[in-house]
Design a protein that fits this description.
single chain; alpha+beta; seven-stranded antiparallel β-sheet; five-stranded antiparallel β-sheet; 11 helices; transmembrane helix
Length: 554
């Protein structure tokens, strides 16, 4: 008895034939006795014809039509068998190729398993949280430990003979590089590990969730919908009316036969990926800042110049000096503003920038919290000092007397200088003179050669004062500006990362909701002229919040 499965053989003299398996019920004995034969007309210009028994008959070339035969066989044509035998060399080469292919597949499978296990470990949530806590702890420690000081500073502050808290010495600071915390190998290594965890989580969790959320799910069974956590049955509801209501609520609605699928808030599924990318941007910018920036500080008296490259020092292995380092900066003027109490309110520096040709390319007056930016370099106003005091003695001069900072308890500043006088008593080898002290640039306190207070003069008053028979006139107080210079290529990346982080965090609050509906038609007919059915639909938002939709069908 022939097999219940037959094979369809399509014969076309001009084209290759195809073989399809057709499944059908067991034929009756009457049908088994006959060979089904189907023919169809095909436009041809010439060729041949195959008969029911497999014979091929010539067809005249001028014939307008040719018969394309379709013959059903009770059994499949024989499958070509590989040739047996062969030389020993061919067999050996085949075995070697098989061995190589097997070893290659085994190595590939091992690599895939190792990759899968590594991704599973890196995407572990407790591991990522531990990494973030460790990074936060190191950042807090970096604010406690003074950064960027000379090694002698740490030798003095964290001595071995008197450890802080009984065990912290300078070795705990300098050995792991905690004196430059944010560029230390420990800190950068934790950042790299957290970045790998974020990428692994995105690849193994977030991307599959987005793919599932984007898939249209048309349910073909009412029982399947009833098994959902939030579901309801509407006896006389219309799927078209439900679609209109959902579209009015901001849903994207799709229908397929008796099924409906609607969703909204798909951006909320993309938001976690955006949060991860924003965090990667922040960490990449922080790493670039720590390893590719320059920094320098300088105190420049009014009227003097300096070259940017002379004061800048690299901060990491990726630091590359730009051409703008050849720029020369001239301090045109330095001045301060004061409170009514005499305390310093604000201080300003009028700066001019010159290129290699001596052409002024920029000029700006900077102050605290209002820096100068040029060619990727930022110049901050951070400090001030007292450089020199211009005085006249008995009409001679002016003399520039250097002002030296005096150490005081507290953060108050005090500067002093000394104007020597001729000693009429040659038996006294000690040098005597006039002492001058100043807290700022607006007033000078003068003492005679015996150390007695004489008076106070303002540089702008132009009033002379007589001390020990000498007329002293204070003409000007020359201040010095304290500037911090920095190039930080990672700042734009960090700002962009924080901006993206805030945006994606807000987007993540957009809940992704889905609604599925299915209509089971049992009977049709007119029940009332105006049929009104009120039904309730429930749907979930990320499994945490629930909404209520009221549908009125007319």
């Amino acid at each position: 008895m022939p097999s219940p499965a037959s094979y369809l053989l399509l014969l076309n003299p001009a084209k290759s034939f195809s073989l399809r398996r057709l499944s059908h019920p067991q034929p009756s004995p009457r049908l088994q006795a006959r060979r089904p034969h189907v023919s169809c007309d095909a436009q041809r210009g010439g060729g041949s014809r195959t008969g029911g028994g497999g014979r091929r008959e010539a067809i005249p070339a001028g014939a307008s039509k040719a018969k394309k035969q379709i013959v059903f066989f009770d059994a499949a044509p024989p499958v070509a068998q590989p040739q047996q035998g062969g030389s020993a060399v061919e067999k050996g080469e085949g075995e070697k190729a098989t061995t190589k292919a097997g070893s290659g597949n085994a190595a590939l499978a091992l690599l895939r398993r190792a990759t899968k296990k590594t991704l599973a470990v890196l995407s572990n949530l407790p591991l990522a949280i531990s990494e973030m806590f460790a990074i936060a702890a190191l950042m807090a420690l970096g604010t406690v430990i003074d950064q960027g000081e000379a090694p002698s500073y740490y030798f003095e502050k964290f001595p071995e003979d008197n450890p802080v808290f009984g065990f912290i010495t300078w070795r705990w600071i300098l050995t792991p590089g905690f004196d430059h915390m944010f560029s230390s190998p420990v800190f950068l290594g934790l950042l790299a590990l957290l970045a790998l965890s974020l990428m692994a989580c995105t690849y193994t969790t977030q991307l599959p969730m987005v793919k599932v959320a984007r898939r249209w799910s048309f349910t073909q069974s009412g029982e399947r919908i009833k098994k959902q956590e939030f579901a309801d049955s509407l006896p006389r509801a219309s799927i078209q009316d439900l679609g209109v209501i959902l579209m009015g609520a901001g849903y994207e609605v799709f229908t397929k036969g008796p099924s409906l699928y609607a969703f909204k808030g798909l951006a909320g599924r993309y938001a976690p990926i955006g949060v991860h990318l924003a965090m990667l941007f922040i960490m990449a910018g922080a790493t670039l800042s720590a390893t590719g920036s320059f920094k320098g500080s300088v105190d420049v008296p009014q009227g003097l110049n300096f070259v940017i490259g002379d004061v800048m020092k690299p901060r990491g292995v990726l630091s590359v000096a730009p051409d703008v380092f050849n720029t020369e900066i001239h301090v045109n003027r330095f001045y301060m503003e004061y409170y009514d109490s005499g305390e310093v309110l604000q201080f300003y520096s009028d700066l001019s920038l010159f290129n290699l040709d001596g052409k002024e390319v920029m000029r700006k007056t900077i102050k605290v919290n209002d820096p100068l930016r040029y060619g990727g370099i930022t110049i901050y106003q951070t400090d001030w000092g007292f450089s020199a005091l211009q005085v006249r003695k008995n009409g001679e001069g002016p003399f520039n007397l250097a002002m030296a900072p005096l150490k005081l308890n507290g953060d108050k500043k005090l500067f002093g200088t000394f104007l020597p006088l001729e000693d009429s008593d040659s038996s006294n080898p000690s040098v005597k003179g006039i002492s001058m002290l100043a807290r700022d640039l607006q007033s000078i306190v003068l003492y005679d050669q015996d150390g007695k207070f004489v008076g106070v003069r303002r540089p702008s008053s132009k009033l002379p004062i007589e001390i020990n028979g000498n007329e002293i006139l204070i003409e000007d107080a020359i201040g010095s500006t304290g500037l911090d210079l920095k190039t930080d290529p990672g700042v734009p990346i960090v700002y962009a990362g924080f901006g993206a982080l805030m945006l994606t965090t807000c987007i993540s609050y957009l809940s992704h909701s889905q609604v599925c509906a299915y209509v089971e038609l049992f009977a049709t007919g007119l029940v009332h002229n105006n049929l009104i059915t009120v039904a309730n639909f429930y749907f979930s938002f990320h499994g945490t919040r629930y909404g209520h939709c009221k549908m009125e069908v007319q």
